[in-house]
Design a protein that fits this description.
Bound molecules: thiamine diphosphate, magnesium ion
Structural class: alpha/beta
Strand order of the largest sheet: 11-10-12-13-15-14-20
Length: 660
């Protein structure tokens, strides 16, 4: 009845967002949610109204959301495809097909850890069964025996594409779940009684801890894929097929049940409730447009005072290990996962011994499924855990770009600050010894382009420890980028816990002539160059950028106000990069002329070739920085080539040998 009213009013153009109606598919939502407790959690996708309502979601908040009002469940930031009512256990819906599934699996991980018998249901369509991330999710749920019900509403279509052009005829949808070792159940998705009794049995098993269940619900949608109209006449499905399903109207089938009988007065009361909810949604105010800026990031946790530094010198890798040790000790709800986290090499030594200390539940290896595992981390984070996920190369995290960009970065915002994603993703940037085009990319500029992601790149062991502790205690997703060549570098690091700001750069050498901004490992090259330029009488102010999002542009500007020259050194391409961003921001803010043109010192605009003969000159060195800055001052270093180190350039020092 709610959706019939949406369909009727939709042409008025006041509900200005896509709506995917479930008319014809009601029994699956109702039968399944009736088998749940309010404390159980449900997730869904684009076609989520029925799931939201059946789980007990607030009708007024739903309609106000579809009308884009401040009183909507997401304050107007989500719309029809992003409903949430956490009090009713409807955690959230997102319309990237298949993408919500691993998030629900992550919530099931939280539910399992809580040990209170809570179960999770995730609804998705037949189309989602073609998404790799769903299969990765089934595998992980089966592996960990998670309390999750995968509810696949098979309505035979993905938009206009019928099942037979998308999936092999000889394999049923449930077969693929069986292949993952998940118990499967098939149900007539139009028969509410059948769905309910099969769901009750499944939920009972889930509460006993016997592992996930996959339920295939055969059903059919009556209206067009998106919108309120009838579309059997546009040529993708036949009226004959439609009429066949219409005879199996889930409401007509349920009307045969004595328990489904409603007195006319009860039906009237429902109509009035719906009418009142529409009236409220229409008359409610829109959110203040300025509120669009709210909830990009969850409130940051404060950093403490600078600790006593002491005299202890340790490596960057050891500093990271200590930071994770401290975070695991401080937060019972934190955990570490990633490919190789507990293996004999412990991610270049950064996770060594932590599984022995904290156990397999809190420090664990993962299937080779970065996309789903990122979703699992997100789902566990929004339900109360604090995961740290590590990738041995940043390049591997790219297969999880949907989860990082569409999900992690957006949950806090699109659900209007009602949930947050306290997640750290460590990514290691490779270099040298043949790392080549797919083990070396430094894509901080990509990530920094996405509102909602913090991006940090410490360059010293001291900062690595303090920033990782701060990241693990932050309530927003933090991408923590570590250059592989920093792992063996050392600095003085206090033994105790301390935090370093996730939003401040650091002046690491003062000077009046040039502001030289280094990013991650390039900061070391900048320091070396500054020393040599000092010998030429040029005083360099070196800024270690440390954080890319947010960019501490104010500190850079105040340095440039003094030096009136700026050079930025990055181990990424200049085009659309962080170096370009920094120089643009500086230019937009200053009202004086620079004494020299600004300069970006970055990578060549081609992928890193593997052969050391070709890779040798790919990365800017201190020699390049010295030459370029000297030229700014009219000094030509004729014998420059002699400055270039004679090594192959694919290892930071002679002790550092491959493979790595
Ligand atoms: C990853 C992704 N690709 C494409 C789309 C566009 N899209 C929206 S719904 C949909 C069909 C989904 O079919 P199914 O999973 O069977 O759900 P149904 O619409 O039938 O309920 C598609 C392709 C999307 N939202 N996400
Ligand atoms: Mg479908």
């Amino acid at each position: 009845m709610v959706e019939e009213e949406i369909a009727k009013r939709y042409p008025q153009q006041q509900m200005r967002c896509p709506v995917h109606l479930s008319i014809g598919q009601e029994a699956a939502a109702v039968g399944l949610c009736a088998a749940l407790q309010p404390t159980d959690w449900a997730f869904s996708g684009h076609r989520n109204h029925a799931h939201y309502l059946a789980k007990g979601g607030n009708l007024k908040a739903m309609l106000a959301e579809i009308y884009g009002k401040a009183t909507g469940c997401c304050g107007g930031k989500g719309g029809s495809m992003h409903l949430t009512d956490q009090a009713a256990g409807f955690i959230g819906a997102t319309p990237i097909v298949g993408s919500t599934v691993p998030i629900a699996v992550g919530a099931a991980l939280t539910a399992q850890r809580e040990g209170k018998g809570r179960v999770v249901v995730v609804f998705f369509g037949d189309g989602a069964m073609e998404a790799g991330v769903v299969h990765e999710s089934l595998n992980f749920a089966a592996l960990k025996k998670l309390p999750i019900l995968f509810a696949c509403e098979n309505n035979l279509y993905s938009v206009y594409s019928p099942l037979e052009v998308r999936q092999p005829e000889q394999r049923s949808i449930s077969d693929s779940a069986t292949g993952h070792g998940v118990k499967t159940v098939q149900a007539d998705g139009n028969n509410v009684q059948e769905v309910y009794s099969k769901a009750c049995a499944a939920v009972h098993d889930l509460r006993q801890g016997s592992g996930p269940v996959f339920m295939e619900l055969a059903t059919y949608r009556w209206l067009e894929h998106c919108g309120p109209g009838y579309d059997n006449d546009i040529g993708y499905r036949t009226e004959v097929e439609f009429q066949k399903w219409k005879q199996r109207d889930p409401l007509a089938i349920s009307a045969q049940l004595a328990s489904a009988f409603l007195e006319p007065a009860e039906i009237d009361a429902i109509r009035q409730e719906i009418e009142a909810a529409f009236s409220a949604a229409i008359s409610d105010p829109f959110a203040d447009p300025a509120s669009a800026e709210l909830h990009v990031f969850a409130p940051a946790n404060v950093t403490g005072p600078e600790p006593e530094r002491g005299t202890r010198e340790i490596t960057y890798a050891e500093a990271l290990r200590e930071a994770q040790d401290i975070s695991l000790a401080n937060f019972d709800n934190s955990y570490l996962m990633g490919l190789g986290v507990p293996d004999p090499k412990g991610i270049f030594g950064t996770t060594l011994g932590l599984q022995e200390k904290y156990g397999e539940e809190r420090v664990f290896d993962i299937p080779l499924a970065e996309n789903a595992m990122t979703g699992v981390a997100i789902g566990s984070a929004i339900t109360g855990m604090r995961p740290i996920l590590t990738h041995q190369r940043l390049d591997f995290a790219l297969v999880s770009i949907d989860q990082i960009v569409n999900q992690a970065a957006k949950w806090h915002y699109m659900f209007n600050g009602t949930m947050s994603v306290p997640l750290v993703i460590r990514m290691i940037i490779g270099r040298g010894w043949g790392q080549g085009p797919q083990h070396s990319q430094s894509l901080h500029a990509w990530f920094a382009h996405i509102p909602g992601l913090r991006v940090v790149m410490p360059s010293t062991a001291y900062d690595a420890k303090g920033m990782l502790i701060a990241a693990a205690d932050d309530n927003s997703p933090v991408l923590f980028l570590e250059h592989r060549w920093l792992h063996n570098t050392t600095s003085i690091v206090p033994e105790n816990a301390y935090k370093v700001s996730l939003s401040k750069s650091s002046i690491i050498r003062e000077g009046n002539d040039v502001t030289l901004v280094g990013i991650s490992y390039m900061t070391l090259e900048c320091l070396e160059a500054a020393k040599r330029l000092g010998d030429l009488g040029i005083e360099i102010e070196v800024i270690d950028l440390r954080t890319v999002q947010p960019l501490d542009i104010a500190s850079i500007i105040s340095s440039v106000e003094k030096t009136r020259r700026i050079v930025v050194v990055d181990h990424a391409e200049a085009t659309c990069g962080v170096s370009s961003e920094i120089i643009s921001c500086v230019y937009e803010s200053i009202n004086f002329c620079l004494k020299s043109k600004p300069k970006r010192i970055c990578l060549a605009e081609h992928p890193l070739p593997t052969s050391y003969a070709m890779a040798r000159d790919y990365y800017p060195r201190s020699d390049d920085i010295v030459r370029i800055i000297a030229e700014m001052f009219g000094i030509k270093l004729a014998s420059f080539k002699n400055l270039v180190s004679s090594s192959f350039g694919d290892q930071p020092n002679s002790d550092f040998t491959g493979p790595f």
